[in-house]
Amino acid sequence: MTDRPYHHGNLRRVALAATAEAIEAGGGPAALSLREVARRAGVSHAAFKHHFGSKPGLLTALATEGYDLLADALAAAGDDRVEAGVAYVRFAAGHPAHFEVMFQPGLYHADDPGLRAAEERAARALTAVLPDSADQDARLAAWSIVHGFAGLWLSGALPADPGADAGDAARPVISLLTLAP
Amino acid sequence: MTDRPYHHGNLRRVALAATAEAIEAGGGPAALSLREVARRAGVSHAAFKHHFGSKPGLLTALATEGYDLLADALAAAGDDRVEAGVAYVRFAAGHPAHFEVMFQPGLYHADDPGLRAAEERAARALTAVLPDSADQDARLAAWSIVHGFAGLWLSGALPADPGADAGDAARPVISLLTLAP
DNA sequence: TGAGGGAACTTTCCACTGGCAAGATAAGTT
DNA sequence: AACTTATCTTGCCAGTGGAAAGTTCCCTCA
């Protein structure tokens, strides 16, 4: 029918990008349609079965990619605690589809080994910026404040200027949490 | 066919309860099925049209109920800032379906007047416990840390004892955020 | 009392969804 | 060249949300 080649070549990568686009365009992961993603990627809806198994499988891959991207972003932010938090928020605002899926484990296979590994890598990157003396509560407080800000930002609950940078908005807020050195 | 009366009587209330149950039982709002809720409530799937209009309409009602419950919980917690935060987390853990829907505005009609009113009532209850000197950043920090803890708790990202109380777990974490009086 | 009118609910239909099974096509491998 | 495996399509199924039309009930008002 079409002159498009039978074998796509790099469906996996394209499918993940198309999935993120569809989620961002169409109102969250709940409204995601496999067939819509397939249309964007230019393949039939059944093409994903071989690569991802099922819809939860597709979202598992997206969440894994998200944890990898988050770990990279945190590592690139350096040692400063506040700047790492800013990077966390910036990641959420810059990759809303990944972020939303990551923290709704009901959507994917939360016990997938590859996913767990990426998750732990991100958790280590997050803990790395905290002072050695930080106990579990301090770690949770730091994680909570950046995660909460990110979640509120994404849900539109914050009265923000359109076009404002989420990271810049988060910096003074995050700075208010001072942990004992 | 059945001896069940044609008119349900209080479908609206029962439907909301059944919706919350279905969301909590079936893995999040994304997997929610109107027909499943209808089966739980003992009516046909089209019965909701009259009361809620559509699926987003049903979830609008659930979110509104959620904001009302949250405002009540915050008001009942008194003036202490930490205890209000504990109440926030406890609400999220106690009403996960409401909470998850509330902060995914893509699922419902976020501009519904009744919803907006309930939203503002909850926002006022939250601001009421903060010191008068608190500026916007302090307000956001307080909201972020409790909201973040609640979100992480619900997503299962926290290494918690099964059966542990979310509020008790949150108290020492929330206490770490000290705002200038 | 009983007749109209609207509220509450059901039945039926439609386009769409995710998943499965079977087949087609391409790319290696020997 | 023959065989095997990976990749993708077509065709099908039960289940979904929504619209349209019909049914049952309640409530008001003469």
Give a description of the structure.
Two copies of one chain form a homodimer. Chain A is 64% helix and 0% strand. Chain A has 181 residues and is an all-alpha fold. Chain A has one domain (11-175): Tetracycline Repressor, domain 2 (Orthogonal Bundle), CATH 1.10.357. Chain A binds chain B through residues 27-31, 103-107, 110, 137-138, 140-141, 143-152, 155-158, 172-174, 176-179, and chain B through 27-31, 103-107, 110, 137-138, 140-141, 143-152, 155-158, 172-174, 176-179. Chain B binds a DNA duplex (30 and 30 nucleotides) through helix 2 and helix 3.
**Overall number of domains of chain A:** 1
The count of DSSP E runs of length 2 or more, i.e. the number of strands of chain A, is 0
In CATH, the architecture of chain A is Orthogonal Bundle
Sheet of most strands of chain A = none
Order of helices and strands of chain A: HHHHHHHHH
What is the H level of CATH, i.e. the homologous superfamily of chain A?
A: Tetracycline Repressor, domain 2
| Poorly predicted spans of chain A | none
Find the biggest chain interface. A-B, 36 and 36 residues
Instruction: From the 3D structure, determine the CATH topology of chain A.
Output: Tetracycline Repressor, domain 2
pLDDT average of chain A, as an integer? 93
Give the CATH class of chain A.
Mainly Alpha
Strand content of chain A: under 5%
Classify the oligomer.
Answer: homodimer
Q: What does this entry show, briefly?
A:
Two copies of one chain form a homodimer. The first copy, chain A, has nine helices and no strands. Chain A is mainly alpha-helical and 181 residues long.
